[in-house]
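[#protein-structures] MJ: dropping Cytochrome P450 here for a structure pass
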Amino acid sequence: MTVMGFSHHEERRSILQAYRRALVHEDSFLFHSKKPLPPSPPKLPIIGNLHQLGPSPHRSLRDLSQKQGPLMLMNFGSVPILVASSSEAAKEIMKTHDLNARVMSFRQVREKEMSLMIEKIEKGRDSLVDLTKLSFWFANNIVSKVALGRTYNELKFTVLLERFVHVFGLICIGNYIPWLSWIDRLSGLEDKAQKVVKDFDEFLESVLEEHVHKRRGMNGQNDEEKDIS
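AK: finished. structure tokens for Cytochrome P450:
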């Protein structure tokens, strides 16, 4: 069955990719350029800079950027990764790839969700605010509205998204050093990733079915109006 020229499989894949792009962005536009590459911290054979990430990768990257600059090139195994650690560097990358226009097209969604978050904080001003939970709620609303057409705040989806973020936020050795992929199987990471992808795929299938039924209902209503007229 197809909807608007796309198969279920293609739609699920595009939506899943949209989630991944919203959660993780790896850019490689400089890697094939003849221009000088950004500064890079010293790396080791085979593993590259993986050993420098530590238990808190975001903090490790922050510390490294203070030495290397706002734009640095790292190597996770055999995979080159461009790290932008300042808003100016990120804006420049977005301009180069024409991403700015796409991000700006979602401006109304972001502004509305920001207003709702501020309102939520205002209502809870006399009590403690869980910023981690609130930030997750904010990001979830934006991504689900942009990718799926509406917000999904049901507990089942929230837990699923948390699992998705957690698993794909872990370092998968096999992605960077293919011949060490057995470590991911041994640690159970591969099974966890496959399980969360399967569950996420089933959720996206239900979303697509929801859209299909809604579209059929609208078409049926239009047909009735035509018959009456």
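MJ: nice. Strands lie at 2-3, 6-7, 71-76, 79-84.
AK: one more thing. The longest strand covers residues 71-76.
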